[in-house]
């Protein structure tokens, strides 16, 4: 019988001359809470951002709180399967497709039970990323199946849908002579009847005569994942998925370089038995002791949190004995979201905390990567930790905060404070976590895609001051956001080396940016740049009279941070939530314990940016003064 392929438009990819395609367009991880009870039929619409009606997609759902089987499949074909067992498809567990996500039926333990938490991974078929093929077996070894991936697959997962047979997994690191089973923890094994000892090509994959992949008359589905096909992004030269392998040492950390920061990782030990680990940054892959949150594709168990380090980095991930030592692992990793924003509201938001039990505490409208709340700075990559901008101290173990939210972030207590929320995006802002060395100059990779114009760095482990870089004073100078000092010369911070569009450099003489005690100190860096119409990093010269600062905005600045660099002065900041108006404007200061000051009129609104008034003190507007600012539209 004929092969039924996925319905992929050849011109959909940026490489085919159409609009650029980003990972944001083809993959998402969405967290949600079940609402349905036995007595109340409540469906839940999960907005994944993927069109599951008009596109070929894979939906994979797991109950995070209970031991309930994974559910995954092609919604249009009703191919709902369970990765943790070998059973065929279930037709009585239909998940409805929506043009922006999925609808979960009333009261289902696997997808919609009141008060329980769930995760939904949604894949869209796209050349260079992912494809789905359904076919009918013929029992003949050497059978080839066409696919539309447009490149050589990195991983293929096949399941018979009309009978209870094991899952079969091909991975490029094992080759066409070996296979794995998704529902078991077994090690890789040779078997010619799976792939006929043949590697796939950019147009076909080959089957043996095993009943698990090619029984005569049996029906099958194949999920096909690409490897390193650089056809995505603004210039159509980025890959968004990689399939590879790595070895773990007997002790210490393994840093796996895949060329980008992942948002999703599937990995499995192949040198021995081991579970299939599913990790993502939405649930947490923080660079901190305490470990990630993960599920296991071959087990129905509730998700697990804790253990040793497994963390996303700007170029891959770190592994420190979380899933075993002296072993070989395979992985499939998907790049983090990196689509350029079209409006500032997509990357910056302000909200006063909810005074009810509503989650999240702070609403943003987007996934939050960093937040400033009461001069406590938080980052998703740092997990439940907070850093005090006004203190030279190590991070605070903030067990009250959580990043487990799609459209904001949360505190586990009712908070009425204001939170400034940032989303990482090319040209606007990035967050990087890295280990110090204190013996060598380090070039730290980042994903800002342009040269940073401002950087804020903190050693999370030691009670040392913050470090500030700005493009105005350059890499020969530094400041510290926890004090009022002026810009001062020192090669120990940036090694007198300007950052580039891909790396920034830290010197050997400052624990603030390159500390090391024992296994190395962990640092976090917040990078900012000018993105036309959205953000502006710059400077102005004081005159003592009113100064109009043109940021290129159309509706003024919603957030303003100002610091004098050629003299002492506080780190002032204002926001439109509390008022940037033609009258008194309240402000706060990064270098002081949170204490909002009212009754002053130091800044005024300006459609293209902001105005610094003549009434402002020398710390903001003195003749001959040089002032740095970060403004967000």
What does this protein look like?
- This protein is mainly β and 633 residues long.
- Helices cover 3% and strands 35% of the residues.
- A six-stranded antiparallel β-sheet has the order 16-24-18-19-20-21, with no helix packed on it. Strands 25-33-27-28-29-30 form a six-stranded antiparallel β-sheet, with no helix packed on it. Strands 42-49-44-45-46 form a five-stranded antiparallel β-sheet, with no helix packed on it.
- A hairpin with a 7-residue loop joins strand 3 (57-63) and strand 4 (71-73).
- It is elongated and about 85 Å long.
- It starts with 22 loop residues before the first helix and ends with a strand.
- The model is unreliable at 1-16 (pLDDT under 50).
Question: Mind sketching the topology for me?
Answer:
Elements: H1 23-26, E1 27-33, E2 44-47, E3 57-63, E4 71-73, E5 96-98, E6 101-104, E7 117-124, E8 130-136, E9 143-146, E10 155-160, E11 168-171, E12 178-179, E13 189-190, H2 192-195, E14 204-207, H3 211-214, E15 219-225, E16 241-247, E17 254-257, E18 262-269, E19 276-280, E20 293-296, E21 304-305, E22 310-313, E23 316-319, E24 328-335, E25 348-352, E26 362-363, E27 370-373, E28 376-379, E29 385-388, E30 396-397, E31 401-402, E32 408-411, E33 418-422, E34 429-435, E35 442-445, E36 454-459, E37 467-470, E38 477-478, E39 488-489, H4 491-494, E40 503-506, H5 511-514, E41 522-528, E42 535-541, E43 547-550, E44 559-564, E45 572-575, E46 588-589, E47 603-606, E48 609-612, E49 626-632
Antiparallel strand pairs: 1-7, 2-6, 3-4, 3-7, 5-6, 8-15, 9-14, 10-11, 10-15, 12-13, 16-24, 17-23, 18-19, 18-24, 19-20, 20-21, 22-23, 25-33, 26-32, 27-28, 27-33, 28-29, 29-30, 31-32, 34-41, 35-40, 36-37, 36-41, 38-39, 42-49, 43-48, 44-45, 44-49, 45-46, 47-48
């Amino acid at each position: 019988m004929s092969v039924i392929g996925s319905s992929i438009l050849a011109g959909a990819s940026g490489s085919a001359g159409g609009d650029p395609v980003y990972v944001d367009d083809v993959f998402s991880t969405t967290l949600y809470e079940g609402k349905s009870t036995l007595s109340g039929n409540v469906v839940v619409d999960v907005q994944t951002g993927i069109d599951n009606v008009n596109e070929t997609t894979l939906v994979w759902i797991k109950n995070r709180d209970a031991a309930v089987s994974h559910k995954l499949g092609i919604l249009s074909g009703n191919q709902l399967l369970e990765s943790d067992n070998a059973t065929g498809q279930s037709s009585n567990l239909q998940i409805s497709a929506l043009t922006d996500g999925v609808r979960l039926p009333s009261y289902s333990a696997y997808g919609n039970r009141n008060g329980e938490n769930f995760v939904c991974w949604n894949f869209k078929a796209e050349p260079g990323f992912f494809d789905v093929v359904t076919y009918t077996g013929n029992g003949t070894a050497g059978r080839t199946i066409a696919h539309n991936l447009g490149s050589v697959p990195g991983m293929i997962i096949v399941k018979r849908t009309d009978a209870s047979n094991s899952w079969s997994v091909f991975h490029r690191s094992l080759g066409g002579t070996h296979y794995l089973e998704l529902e078991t923890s077994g090690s890789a094994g040779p078997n010619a009847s799976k792939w006929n000892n043949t590697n796939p090509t950019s147009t076909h994959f080959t089957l043996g005569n095993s009943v698990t992949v090619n029984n005569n008359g049996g029906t099958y589905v194949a999920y096909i994942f690409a490897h390193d096909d650089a056809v995505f992004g603004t210039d159509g030269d980025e890959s968004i998925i990689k399939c590879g392998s790595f070895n773990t040492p007997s002790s210490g950390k393994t840093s796996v370089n895949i060329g980008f920061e992942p948002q999703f990782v599937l990995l499995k030990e192949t040198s021995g038995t081991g579970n299939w680990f599913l990790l993502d940054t939405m649930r947490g892959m923080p660079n901190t002791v305490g470990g990630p949150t993960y599920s296991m594709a071959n087990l129905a168990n509730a998700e697990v949190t804790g253990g040793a380090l497994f963390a996303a980095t700007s170029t891959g991930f770190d592994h420190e004995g979380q899933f075993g030592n002296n072993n070989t692992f395979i992985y499939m990793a998907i790049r983090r979201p990196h689509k350029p924003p079209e409006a500032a509201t997509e990357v910056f938001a302000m909200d006063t905390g909810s005074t009810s039990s509503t989650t999240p505490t702070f609403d943003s409208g987007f996934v939050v990567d960093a937040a400033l709340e009461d001069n406590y700075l938080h980052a998703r990559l740092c997990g439940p930790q907070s850093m005090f901008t006004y203190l030279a101290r190590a991070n605070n173990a903030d067990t009250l905060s959580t990043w487990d939210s799609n459209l904001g972030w949360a505190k586990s207590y009712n908070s009425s404070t204001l939170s400034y929320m940032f989303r990482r995006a090319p040209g606007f802002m990035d967050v990087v976590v890295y280990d110090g060395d204190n013996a060598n100059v380090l070039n730290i990779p980042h994903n800002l895609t342009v040269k940073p114009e401002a950087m804020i760095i903190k050693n999370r482990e030691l009670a040392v001051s913050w470090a500030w870089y700005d493009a105005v004073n350059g890499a020969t100078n530094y400041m510290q956001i926890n004090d009022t000092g002026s810009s001062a010369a020192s090669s120990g911070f940036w090694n007198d080396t300007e950052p580039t569009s891909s790396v920034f450099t830290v010197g050997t003489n400052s624990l603030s940016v390159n500390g090391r005690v024992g296994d190395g100190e962990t640092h976090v860096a917040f990078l900012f740049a000018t993105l036309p119409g959205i953000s502006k990093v710059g400077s102005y010269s004081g005159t003592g009279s009113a100064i109009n600062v043109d940021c290129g905005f159309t509706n003024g600045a919603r957030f303003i941070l100002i610091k004098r660099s050629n003299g002492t002065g506080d780190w002032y900041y204002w926001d439109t939530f509390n008022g940037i108006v033609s009258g008194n404007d309240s402000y706060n200061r990064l270098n002081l314990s949170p204490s909002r000051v009212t009754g002053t009129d130091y800044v005024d609104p300006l459609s293209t940016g902001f105005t610094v008034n003549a009434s402002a003190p020398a710390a903001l507007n003195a003749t001959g003064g040089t002032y740095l600012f970060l403004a967000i539209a």
